[in-house]
């Protein structure tokens, strides 16, 4: 049951709206790229699996997670974009950079979503170790990229 509450990788698509005409922005941080690639692939495949057209998914990269906010804003400002999915991996280091980045991104993405009145999804994996990040990129805790895409679809049906 906890899985059903915490892990959207095992979701039910029964309530999903038709997304065949929806347009999605995908913003992916290049920092920890091996992991963010898996998140990105999970999100992309999930959108297609539920009816999005490949030409309607606009995938862009930004250097690091801190840049996700501006990347999201640059996409969200286009009227034709219906939802933006942001993906990054921040692993705790010896300094507090992770705190600053995560708070800035959380606040920034919230602001972008509210400013443009459209779903801007926070797909930032924030962990203490690289292993924990892999656990959330196709490992024992699912794929947070899949979950971010599911969240976008769910919010479009709100
Ligand atoms: N970006 C990430 O996406 N994940 C990280 O774990 C990460 N760690 C960083 C650690 C330090 C000390 C610095 C300075 C930057 C880090 N960044 C990380 C990059 C950050 O998101 C951003 O791209 C840069 O700070 C440039 O604005």
TrEMBL record:
Record-listed E.C. numbers: 2.5.1.78
UniProt GO MF annotations: 6,7-dimethyl-8-ribityllumazine synthase activity
CDD domains hit by this protein: Lumazine_synthase-I
Transmembrane segments: none
Binding site for (2S)-2-hydroxy-3-oxobutyl phosphate: 94-95, 136
GO biological process, one term: riboflavin biosynthetic process
Pfam families: DMRL_synthase
Superkingdom in the source lineage: Bacteria
Keywords from the UniProt entry: Riboflavin biosynthesis, Transferase
Residues engaged in binding 5-amino-6-(D-ribitylamino)uracil: 31, 65-67, 89-91, 122
GO CC annotations, alphabetized: cytosol; riboflavin synthase complex
Catalytically driven reaction(s): (2S)-2-hydroxy-3-oxobutyl phosphate + 5-amino-6-(D-ribitylamino)uracil = 6,7-dimethyl-8-(1-D-ribityl)lumazine + phosphate + 2 H2O + H(+)
Active site: 97 (proton donor)
Task performed by this protein: Catalyzes the formation of 6,7-dimethyl-8-ribityllumazine by condensation of 5-amino-6-(D-ribitylamino)uracil with 3,4-dihydroxy-2-butanone 4-phosphate. This is the penultimate step in the biosynthesis of riboflavin.
Protein name, entry field: 6,7-dimethyl-8-ribityllumazine synthase
Native source organism of the sequence: Hymenobacter lutimineralis
Taxonomic classification: Bacteria, Pseudomonadati, Bacteroidota, Cytophagia, Cytophagales
Originating gene: ribH
């Amino acid at each position: 049951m906890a899985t059903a509450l915490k892990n959207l990788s095992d979701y039910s698509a029964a309530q999903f709206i038709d997304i065949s005409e929806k347009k999605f922005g995908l913003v992916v941080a290049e920092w920890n790229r091996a992991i963010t690639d898996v998140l990105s692939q999970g999100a992309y495949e999930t959108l297609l699996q539920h009816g999005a057209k490949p030409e309607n998914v606009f995938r862009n990269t930004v250097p690091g997670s801190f840049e996700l906010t501006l990347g999201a804003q640059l996409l969200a400002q286009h009227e034709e974009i219906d939802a933006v999915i942001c993906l990054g991996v921040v692993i705790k280091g010896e300094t507090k950079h992770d705190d600053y980045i995560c708070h800035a991104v959380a606040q920034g993405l919230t602001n972008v979503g509210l400013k443009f009145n459209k779903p801007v999804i926070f797909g930032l994996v924030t962990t203490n170790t690289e292993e924990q990040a892999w656990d959330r990129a196709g490992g024992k805790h699912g794929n947070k990229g899949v979950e971010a895409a599911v969240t976008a679809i769910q919010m479009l049906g709100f």
